[in-house]
Write a structure and sequence with these properties.
Strand content: 15-25%
Radius of gyration: 22 Å
Strand order of the largest sheet: 2-1-3-4-5-11
Order of helices and strands: HHEHEHEHEEHEHEHEHEHEHEEH
CATH topology of the largest domain: Rossmann fold
Number of strands: 12
Distance between the termini: 29 Å
Structural class: alpha/beta
Number of helices: 12
Bound molecules: alpha-L-arabinofuranose
Helix content: 40-55%
Oligomer: single chain
Length: 332
């Protein structure tokens, strides 16, 4: 590990780190055998990770994956939980810059408002890797790469499944994710791309459930109050909100999974349990196990290898027909 780190340090200096604007000014490597050389060889890589929060089982799985992979590789991980607030993420990025971390990993709560702080990171030569959610910036050199699922396609997959089940004739209530977040925007857009092709596939109510089970239940209760028996399907932007909605439907005696179709996104264990119980009809998997790919990408970046601007995780849909067979092999 020590040797690898020293080799990487030397390699970086030799390569001259071509994209200078995006990297720290690193000192010349110390002379072989000098006390400085011994000190630098024992310095582990330091990575700052600014996480959205812990709003869902998916998010918890993502945090666990990144923390355990950092530990496995001997990376010094500075973890910061923003509790769903962008201002906390901005503060933690500024802290990471002040602490001169080697790389910043950011899972951004919302899409916009990142330019000033990312310019600071760039000016300090600290590369930023976006994980799981994209951002809107006019200058994409402000981040090195985005590793994420295709949220638009996830929305399309959910809508296509609903078309198959209903022939495109269905009244839907939609539970959106966090307002302004990439998955909420893109999952809505992808779903609408398909549903707009079917005049009788109608979203009769749509509101944010903030990606949480409690809010999903609360919003679903309000939908039931105003729409009652008109509701034929629930499209939730994540499993936690779907599980909250299922509870509300159960409480109202509306038979989720049979009387009302329920489809969501994430593929967490709770969703598989609900499918086995017949209450959730389908979930589109969105893999949260970012640890290995994130640190592989950091290694490549620091070794001066070319890293694509976007690395896309491939997702698929699971429904009740295979839930029981695969539930025991699920990793999150
Ligand atoms: O960005 C991914 C989304 O964020 C997940 O679907 C959701 O559960 C989460 O909180």
């Amino acid at each position: 590990m020590i040797r690898r780190f020293f080799l990487v340090t030397v390699l970086l200096a030799v390569l001259g780190f071509s994209n200078a604007a995006c990297r720290k000014e690193r000192p010349e490597p110390p002379a072989e055998g000098s006390p400085d050389e011994k000190a630098s060889a024992t310095k582990a890589l330091t990575v700052g990770f600014s996480q959205v929060g812990a709003e869902s089982a998916w998010r918890t799985a993502e945090t666990k994956s990144i923390k355990s992979e950092a530990q496995r590789r001997g990376v010094n991980l500075k973890f910061s939980d923003a509790q769903g607030r962008q201002e906390n993420q901005i503060k933690s990025i500024k802290n990471f810059i002040a602490q001169e971390v080697d790389v910043i990993v950011l899972a951004p709560v919302v899409e916009t408002g990142w330019e000033p702080v990312l310019k600071e990171a760039k000016a300090s030569g600290i590369p930023v890797i976006l994980v799981d959610r994209g951002i809107e910036v006019s200058d994409d050199s402000l981040y090195a790469t985005l590793i994420a699922s295709d949220f638009v396609e996830e929305g399309r997959m959910a809508a296509r499944w609903l078309v198959e089940m209903t022939g495109g004739k269905v009244n839907i209530v939609e539970l959106q994710g966090t307002v302004g977040s990439a998955p909420a925007i893109d999952r809505k857009r992808g779903f609408a791309e398909i549903s707009d092709q079917f005049p009788d596939m109608k979203i009769i109510k749509s509101q944010s459930g903030e990606f949480t089970r409690a809010k999903g239940k609360e919003v679903m209760e309000a939908f039931i109050k105003s729409e009652g028996g008109n509701i034929q399907a629930v499209y939730a932007h994540n499993d936690d909100m779907a599980l909250g909605a299922i509870q509300a439907l159960d409480d109202a005696g509306m038979n989720p999974g049979r009387g009302v179709l329920v489809i969501s996104i994430d593929g967490v264990r709770g969703a598989f349990e609900a499918m086995v119980a017949g209450k959730l009809n389908a979930t589109v998997e969105c893999n949260p196990l970012f640890g290995p790919i994130t640190f592989d990408t950091i290694d490549k970046l620091l070794a001066g290898d070319t890293v694509p601007k976007k690395i896309v995780n491939r997702d698929r849909l699971y429904d009740q027909s295979e839930a029981a067979q695969v539930i025991d092999s699920r990793k999150y």
